[in-house]
Amino acid sequence: MEKIILKNKIINDKYTDYVYEAFDIQNKEETTVEIPVNFHDCKTFNWNIGVIYGGSGTGKTTLLKKFGLIDDVKFDNDKSLISNFDWLEPSEATKVLSSMGLSSVPTWLRPFNILSNGEQYRAKLAYLVAKADTSDTILVDEYTSVVDRDVAKAMSNALQKYIRRENKKIILASCHFDIMEWLQPDWIYSPIKGRVERPDCLRRESIKLQIYRCRPSAWSIYKQHHYLTQQLNEASNCYQIDWNGKNVAFIAILPFPGVGDERTRRISRIVVLPDFQGLGIGKKLIDYISGLYLKLKHQMYIRTMNPTFGIALTKDTKNWMATSSNLKIPGPDTSGRKLIYRPSYSFKYIGPIIDDDTRMIEMKSESYQYWHVNDLSLF
After folding, report:
1. What is the DSSP string of 174-229?
2. Residues spanned by CATH 3.40.630.30 within the chain?
3. Would you tell me the crossing angle of helices 307-315 and 281-295 to the nearest 10 degrees?
């Protein structure tokens, strides 16, 4: 078996002498680390995702460099995030960012340096995977080391879907095993074991979400991540989603009498915080809330200009039906103003009734202290 042998000279002084004496260690002039290299099995099957897994100091970065140069992505902070993807057409840039779970339009328009750690990490991943050809191997060191562990799961799920859809190759070096079931790697290499292992299908844990009624003031957490006006109609019925005690999503419902009767409703706001995008939480949320309202005889409508969300609804013909105004080009304006065409997606919920507790919908505003929490599961 091939080995990488790393030797480093030691300059001895009173500090090293102290350690030698305290722990009865013989004086050393150099340190030697041996790292086994055995990636031959990777050449015997087709793969998209590989992981070099081990603790700190086990040689993950050294092994990763065996596959090529580890790129360090640099962003121009004088430009918006999306403008840094200037080798792509704008529509393609939005698709790549959305594929990495960065589907927040306001995030696209901000410079890289003011994004959260999770957003910055996703942006770097988006840049690397977009630049790579199918013949390249993308290399990422210290994968998810600087992000919250729930954020790491969401990020890993988005990444693996994109890599497999585009048939690209990526190798990630990580000291975290909790991402494996979300990445579903084709192989894992442990420097300690010194061999490539092909894991069986790793079953993802079920994500347990909690949804509850909240006051419109909760919108303050989410408004900076929505592409429309930050103002929220105070008449909205508002709901929040939590995951492991963290706020992750918000949805607001308003009456929609112009389309149907007094019982007709529309989703006026839906936001998933950027760190938790890529898991399908937004889609799960609107399906659930629409089915729950339907139990109380309320028809639900939604209109969105977000292409990623619009395309997802277009594909889900079991639960959502396009309305007559879906993607309709505005007609001439008698005022003489020049109208700009925007792709607006419009749908009506036609899915099943959600037979769950409806008290959080029926409750009155003065009853907020008696929150009714419903559970919602993903995967």
Report:
1. ES-STTHHHH--SEEEETTTTEEE-PPPPPPPPEEEEEEEE-GGGGGGTGGG-SS-
2. 207-378
3. 60
CATH 3.40.50.300, the chain: domain bounds: 48-197
- CATH number of the domain located at residue range(s) 207-378 in this protein: 3.40.630.30
State which amino acid sits at residue 45.
F
254 CB neighbour count, 10 Å cutoff: 15
The tens place of each residue's pLDDT in the chain, 379 residues long, gives: 677 777 788 889 999 889 888 888 887 788 777 777 778 888 788 999 999 998 888 889 989 998 988 888 999 999 999 999 999 999 899 989 988 888 888 899 999 999 988 899 999 999 999 999 888 999 999 999 888 888 889 899 999 999 999 999 999 999 999 999 999 999 999 888 888 888 876 777 788 899 999 888 899 999 988 877 678 998 899 999 999 889 999 999 999 987 778 889 999 999 999 888 888 899 999 999 999 999 999 999 999 887 778 888 999 999 999 987 766 655 555 555 555 556 688 999 999 999 998 888 877 655 554 557 888 887 6
According to CATH, what is the number of the domain 48-197? 3.40.50.300
pTM across the whole model: 0.78
CB 207 within 8 A of CB 279: yes
271, 219 Cβ separation under 8 angstroms: no
